[in-house]
Write a structure and sequence with these properties.
two-stranded antiparallel sheet, 5 helices, about 5% strand, disordered C terminus
């Protein structure tokens, strides 16, 4: 008889181990022995085997292997979850990179337009200054500070007639 906690496997492994030990120790002598004649000698071996299978978790090899497999399975599930989370983070980074690339393209295009507009305005201001100095009478030096100097980066301009 065995407790239900041991299941069916451990008691049968115990019985097989006891049988192998008995046959190895007594062999053909056991076939001709009287009932309980070997009981005194073998009772110590029997109690050692019972103690071993009752207390040692290594006795149930299949149960131990199943437990290790279960632990490995749990670790693998955790690793797969981490990989999936990492994949989601990579997808987010790819999306952010794409949006930054789009913004960079738009910024570059807008900067080019502003630069062209500033160049056009600068040319117009220069043309205006030149035309106003040509129409003025008399040879004199003129100093002009652009009204839009902050916006056009035009510094102090000097024109001589």
């Amino acid at each position: 008889m065995a407790e239900e906690d041991f299941g069916r496997r451990v008691p049968f492994v115990f019985l097989e181990d006891v049988r192998q030990t008995f046959v190895a120790k007594y062999g053909p002598q056991a076939l001709h022995a009287a009932a309980y004649a070997l009981n005194e000698e073998f009772s110590r071996v029997l109690s050692q085997k019972m103690n071993y299978y009752n207390t040692n978790p290594q006795a149930d090899t299949i149960g131990r292997v199943r437990k290790e497999i279960s632990e490995v399975k749990n670790i693998m599930v955790e690793n797969i979850e981490l990989v999936l989370e990492r994949g989601e983070k990579i997808d987010l980074l790819v999306d952010k990179t794409d949006s930054l690339q789009d913004e960079t393209f738009r910024f570059r295009r807008q900067a080019r337009r502003i630069k062209q507009e500033i160049a056009r305005l600068r040319t117009q201001v220069e043309e205006l200054l030149i035309s106003s100095t040509v129409h003025r009478s008399g040879p004199r030096k003129m100093t002009w500070h652009a009204v839009f100097s902050r916006h056009l980066n035009v510094r102090h301009c000097r024109f001589a007639l």
